[in-house]
Each structure stands twice: as C-alpha cells, then as structure tokens.
Amino acid sequence: MTPAIEVHNASLAFQLTRDRVGTLKEFAIQTVKRKVKKEQLWAVRDVSFTVAPGEVLGVIGPNGAGKSTLMKMVARVLPPTRGRVVVRGVVAPMIELGAGFNPEMTAYENLILYGTLLGRTPGQMQERAAAICDWADLNDFIDVPTRSYSSGMLARLGFSVATDINPEVLVVDEVLSVGDAAFQEKSKQRMMEMIGQGAAVLFVSHDLETVKALSDRALWLDHGTVQGVGAPSDVVSAYQSTFAGQQDEQLDQ
Amino acid sequence: MTSTFVYDSDQARRPLVSELRNLWNYRGLLRLLVTRDLTVRYKRSTLGVWWTLLNPLLFMVVLWMVFGQIFRFDTPGNTPYIVYLLSGIVYITFFSQGLIATGSSIVNSSSILTKVFVPPEVFAISSSVAALVNFAISLLPLIAVQLITGVGVPWTMLLVPIPALCMLMLVAGLGLLVASAAVFFYDVLDLAAVGVLILTYLTPTFYPISIVPEQFLWVVEANPLYSFLLVFRGFVYEGAFAPGWAFAVMIGTAIGFLLLGAWVFARSWKSLVVLI
What we know:
The complex is a heterodimer of chains A (253) and B (276).
Chain A: E1 5-15, H1 24-32, E2 40-51, E3 56-60, H2 67-74, E4 82-88, E5 91-94, H3 107-117, H4 122-135, H5 151-162, E6 169-173, H6 181-196, E7 200-204, H7 208-214, E8 217-222, E9 225-230, H8 232-252
Helix pairs in contact in A: 3-4, 3-5
Chain B: E1 6-8, H1 17-25, H2 27-40, H3 50-71, H4 81-108, H5 110-113, H6 120-148, H7 161-184, H8 188-201, H9 217-222, H10 224-238, H11 244-273
C-alpha cells in the first residue's frame, strides 16, 4: 500500500535568533564591524519514516527535540531544507488549534475563517457551522466575539473545526491535553473514529501511556535525530531508561 | 488509497503559475480576507466603513485650503483645482496604502503562516485587493465633486478599470518585493514608508507640472507614477487619452514589477518561512 506520509532524509535549519540581524541598520553596522555571523540550528536532522493509511505513529522526546518542527514539516508549513516530504490525502493539522482566530470577530466569523484557512470553502463552512458549534458545545456563544472566550473554549472550537472533515492524514501536536476531562475523552473518541476510517496519524505526546495505548509504532526523537523506531512499548522503555540514567547521573553528582 | 491531494516538497514552485493557481484555489479565503480588511479596521468606530469615503475628502479639504486658497495653483486646462487635486489623491492613495499594506502583510500574519499551511501570496494579494476596493469606493466622492463643480463625468470614466488594474499589478508586485525584504529586515517597512512619501511628492498630485523648473522636469517624468496619473486623469475628467508613451510606461511598469515581485517571492519563500 502506498504510504500516506513519506519522510526521506529530511532536515530543517533555523537561523539562530540571538545572532539574527533583524534590521537593515544593524546589518549595516555589523557588516562594517565585520561581525555578521551565519549560524544555523538544525532542528531536524536526517529523519526518515513512513506512515501507512490507518496507522498511528506516536512521536516522543524531550522538549526541544524537534518534534513540533517535524509536525510542521509534515503539515506543509515548513518546507525541508534538505530531503523530501510527501503527504497523500486531505490533511487535518492540529498544531496550536485556533491559530488565526481574530479576537474582534465572533465565534461564527472565526469558525468560517479558520475552516477556510484549512482549505475548505466559505460555503461549506456555512453549511457545517451549526454542527461544528454543536459538537463543541458552544451553541449559546456563537455570536460572541472570541475575545471573551476562555482558552478551553477556544481549543474546543478549534478542534471541532479541524476535525469536521474526514481527513486522510491527521497531524496532532499535543492538543489532546487541552480542555476538561469530558472534552479530552470526547476528542480522543473522535480521533479513534477517524483512525477507524483509515486516517494515517502522526502525533506528539508527552503522555507516554497514551502513546503506548494509541500508537502502532513509536518514534523517539532527540536533538533532531531519530533515536529509535519500533513497537511503542520497546521505544518508550528505551526512552525512559536513558531518562532514568540521566537522573541517576544527576543524583550522583 | 488514491487521493487528489498530494504534497511533495520536491515539487518546485513555478513563479507566477503557482501563485495564480493558489489564488484561484483559495479564492474563498481571498474574499474573506478582503472583507475582514475592510470591516475590522472600522469595527469599533461609529461611522464604520463611511470613513473610506470621508478620508480622501478630509485630506482634499486640507490640501485645497493650503494650495488652492493660499498658494493658488493654476491647473492645466480649465479644470477646477479641486478636481485636479482629489483625482490625484484618490489614485496615489491607492498606491501608497496598497503598497504598505501588501508589504507588511506577511510579517503581520506570521502567527497564522507558521501554524497552518496557507499559500502566503493569498495574504499579500488580499491586501492589494482591499486597497483596490477602497479606491473604487473613493471614486464616488470624486464623481460627486466633478458633478458639483460642473466638470461632469465623461464616457472615458468607463475605462478607469484599465489604470486601476495596472495600479493593482504595480502594488502587488512592488508589495511582494517589500514583503520578502521585510521578513529579513524589519525596518525595510519604515524605509518603504519614506520611499513612498518621496515618490508621491515627486508625482504631480497637488501641484501642476507647470510649476516644476525645466531642469528638474526629467525627475518627474522619469517617475512611472506620473504616467499612471496622466492616464487616470485623462479618463476620469478630461475625457481624453493620454499620450501613447504614458500608456506604454504604465503597462510596462505594471507587468514588469508584477513578474519581478512574483519571481523573487516564489524563489525566496523557502528561506523566508523559517525566519517569520
């Protein structure tokens, strides 16, 4: 079967922020002083993997390992500096849900705009608006500007819009931890439904139990490189053992 | 599984072709962004969108008092100074507003562009189109002033879409250049604002070309905006066609900058996106 997600030796470099010359004026001064440094940070280095339709790949690793950057590369936001990324199918990116909500606009207007940003048409969104609000339990607040929304309400609205299609590829970056317990359960169920319908899922989580329970395979990322891929329980315990080892070292010192 | 949607990072962007296709595929978003641009700006004001009509009129009144009453400029032909003035303001505001809005569009929408995949040119072009809509609305007070002063509205008014589209192309192309540069160096936007100011003062908007000393005439004539304005004024109230060279300069500048802007933007996007 053709994989839904293919990542071949992909790398991505960021220009380091602290050395970045932000203005022309600074650039001129630094050039005169011969101080322009071009330093790059490789957030993701030489990563390769595939995800088949209906398969769930969980990504684990410490903060700053490059997990979010990898998600953004698959979600098409960041093109790889080297290597290649191929994604087949309609993608539902769930990275910082509700990016682009304008606080001055009402929930209804934001919902239409957000869905359109995700590639749907305003007409489709108008038809689905009622169902989307219904699922997010926000029917009473549909004509309220989102500046008076709580972060949990915003996340619910964002999740509801992002998953209101039958996506063939789901890219989920740590969004299952938003909202209250009831909503977490509801959103987990919705994800399971989509997996059942054959969606390929790439998801990041710090909750290792969820990774073991949900994924078919796990990928452990550290310093931008793959430390291990395989059965979730094996990868998770390998990750936990180095983590424990580091803690022991710290205790010894 | 076969799907019509395939993303391959190796697929190179083809300048202009990719952009036009993206704009067509995302035309719904384009429309939403233009309406948002036009309405959110005035959301908390009582007059709302009426400001679009009032702004050029207020600006006109100030300049008319200074240059029409105090300096007493003579305008070419027997056109009332106020018509000469307002036509210039309306058209040049399209240029300056559109260029600054398009130039800052990418930096301003960075929070969206780093989280959701949207072709960035949709954001840039929506700012240019919003400026076009503003321009179209501000033609209404211009027409009103022409009727009141007895200048009337010639049939060539129907040809105004030609200089309007050319200006849209210039604003979009030049705006894409500024937008790319602004991601690398933020102060490019401040520089662009100064540049726009200088360029508009070098265009005979509120002064007649006849007051320019002969040895400096080439400076004004070398400014492509002068040609744009000649064509526009010809259509709007003179009821005449500007000389052929003005048309040539206008169309050439518009197409040239659009191609250049689209090409530079498409080429530099990969290095831009990791910076915003």
